[in-house]
């Protein structure tokens, strides 16, 4: 049975400003963080730092972590950005792929590059490429 796991976070600007979650100094800092957390299956930190700290209870986070680890049962050795699109105004959407053998994970994010930092506005992690491609 194939698991379809979907995480979608819409972040309120006021919450972002207070906590500074989902804010990175550079695109490279964001990319390194996301790649490492997904490849090592550190899903709780991924969700919290990208804005889910106030969206989920500890119990919900543990449940999401268990679901994601069931969908992606091994660490993912490979990573690549396979689609990136400039939407204007400093806003970019991108899709990333992670894989080991036959296990694939797909990540989608809308990013806002604003002056001195980069903000993750929302993101999705899924085992289905169709869910990710539908966002473009």
Written description of the protein model:
- With 136 residues, the chain is of the alpha+beta class.
- 36% of the residues lie in helices and 33% in strands.
- The protein contains five helices and five strands.
- It has a five-stranded antiparallel sheet.
- A hairpin with a 2-residue loop joins strand 2 and strand 3 (91-100).
- The protein is globular and about 40 Å long.
- The two termini are 27 Å apart.
- The model is unreliable at 1-19 (pLDDT under 50).
Keywords:
globular; alpha+beta; 5 helices
Topology (elements, then pairings):
Elements (H helix, E strand, L loop, with lengths): L12 H7 L3 E2 L2 H13 L3 H10 L5 H14 L6 E11 L2 E10 L2 E12 L2 E10 L2 H5 L3
Antiparallel strand pairs: 1-5, 2-3, 3-4, 4-5
Name the poorly predicted regions.
1-19
Class by SSE composition:
alpha+beta
N- to C-terminal distance: 27 Å
SSE succession: HEHHHEEEEH
**Major beta sheet, strand line-up:** 1-5-4-3-2
The major β-sheet equals: 5 strands, antiparallel
| Overall average residue pLDDT | 87
Q: What Rg is obtained from the alpha carbons, in whole angstroms? A: 14 Å
Residue share in β-strands: 25-35%
| Count of beta strands | 5
The number of distinct helices, counting runs of at least 4 residues, comes to 5
Task: Determine the fraction of residues in helical runs and give it as a percent range.
Answer: 25-40%
């Amino acid at each position: 049975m194939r698991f379809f796991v979907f995480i979608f976070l819409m972040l309120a600007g006021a919450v972002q400003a207070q906590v500074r979650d989902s804010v990175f100094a550079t695109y490279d800092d964001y990319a390194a963080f996301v790649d490492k957390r997904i490849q090592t299956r550190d899903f709780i930190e991924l969700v919290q730092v990208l804005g889910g700290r106030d969206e989920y209870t500890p119990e919900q986070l543990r449940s999401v972590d268990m679901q994601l680890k069931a969908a992606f049962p091994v660490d993912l050795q490979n990573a690549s950005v396979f689609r990136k699109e400039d939407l204007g105004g400093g806003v970019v959407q991108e899709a990333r792929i992670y894989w080991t053998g036959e296990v694939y994970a797909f990540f989608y994010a809308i990013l806002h590059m604003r002056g001195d930092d980069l903000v993750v506005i929302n993101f999705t992690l899924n085992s289905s490429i169709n869910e990710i491609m539908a966002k473009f």
